[in-house]
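# step 3/5: fold
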Amino acid sequence: MHGNNAPSIQVLIAEDSEDDALLIDLELKKGGYRTHMIRVDSSKQMEQALQDQHWDLIITDHNMPSFNSAEALQLAQKFHPHVPFILVSGSIGEEVAVDAMKSGAHDYVMKDNLARLLPAVQRELKEAENRRAHQEAEALIRHMAFHDSLTDLINRVEFERRLDASVESASTDGVAHALLYLDLDQFKLVNDSCGHLAGDELLKRITRRLQDAVRDSDTLARLGGDEFGVLLNNCPLDRAQKIARGLLEKVQQYTFVWSDKSFKVGVSIGLVQVKGDISSTELLTLADMACYVAKDQGRNRIHIASDSDSSISLRQTEVQWIQRLRDSMESGNLQLYRQHIQNLQQGESHSELLLRMLDHDGEVITPDRFIPAAERYNLMPDVDRWVISHAFAQRTMQQQTGIADFNTLFINLSANSLSDPELVDFIRHQLQQYPVNPQHFGFEITETAAITDFDNAVTLIEALRKLGCRVALDDFGSGMSSFSYLKSLHVDFVKIDGSFVKSMLENEMDCAIVEAVNKIGHIAGLQTIAEFVENEDIKLRLQQLGIDFAQGWAIHRPECFTRTAQDPVEKKLA
């Protein structure tokens, strides 16, 4: 290799003979290198040269008037330990050479055999490049282990490590720190409207704005998704509030533009003091809850967590229910119960599947205690799928053992599931997996959810009926203006809201509403089901009005769908 394409190397040579240095330089140039060489012949000169610039190769004689190769090697390892170090000497003995190699020298060449120099240099430069590449790869892996790949901020793992250190200093030294938990508002809108590329770009731009608003001593991290954390070291609460407001304003002032669309993005911030008596995990949970409270209170604001904060206490309770619900789905403590729906006229009866959770001591927990938390934290689609798969599996088992009654089992679908684009495919797969008749299953959708998410409700109802399943509109009648929706919602059943049914004997208006829903339902070709039938008198009146079905404790108390009537768990519920 020659000319401009020849590799250029910086060579430091410790040599008292200028002629020998020139011979070495000539040998390297003959091998195709463009050398930039500096010769030194004292310890002081070599130390200065090592400090002044980077070197690709260090060559040293063994014996010089003012210092020797051992001193040169020590200096090289001090300032440039990874640079190839080669001894080129005319008087070095084998024992000295071996000691030098053990001490860190990479090779040695005798001056009367300079033909060995070029292969040694080529080998050691290649090895040095391999070492550099390996070190860079290791450094990159270490960096990636503790940094977010999109924003290059530190990640949650490293943030929690630093938070641990702050908790320790707060405990031992009484130093004031603060923790901020940030969640972008309207980020999902950007993702859904413009795609994930736009969402990623928004996160990178917001990161730069957040970096401008924090101090050099603060730690900004991406905790996941559109969530960020800020650790404010040596920062009392009043100062932390000012920084949080600065972050809020930085985000508020920004308009994100993508293609022909523009978005105003906000941020909700939870603020908590870092104290030595609470762990980093608990602090993050507390700050996260405070952030959710800020969202609940209208978004784009700051909420400071305190020991007496009722909003935080509610959040903590909900988080506990979410964990218990997830555990119950895995452990078998989540169970299906069934309540009969009696035909008041003539023909087949039906059943509705209800959800229950078993406590550690076997007590039954009703869904009003855990469903609100599941709805808030968007866990209901998972719960709905759990119910569907277990209902299909249980009905299959009952058919195989000959104990199935073949009436319609109604399954409740949450409002969250209406917009689940994969729900119908999931139900279709369950119907393929289990040998059940789709007509033996019905799905209940509340009137409120259907009207709130009308387009998705229409699409889902039509898809379910195409599969052969039945559909009921639950809790119907609370909004009388909703009668017109019956022309578009092609359901099979209307379940009359129980708040009218249970008081219909004492309240003429409630009775009139029940009668009106029944009449309009029949005109629309639907069958009607009255809920909350709590005594025989109500049941008789419903029968007189021509209501098709009745459901309530006067008809049947819920029983475990997978247990016998003698099961002690069922007795506790009854």
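# step 4/5: annotate
The longest strand covers residues 334-343.
# step 5/5: archive (pending)
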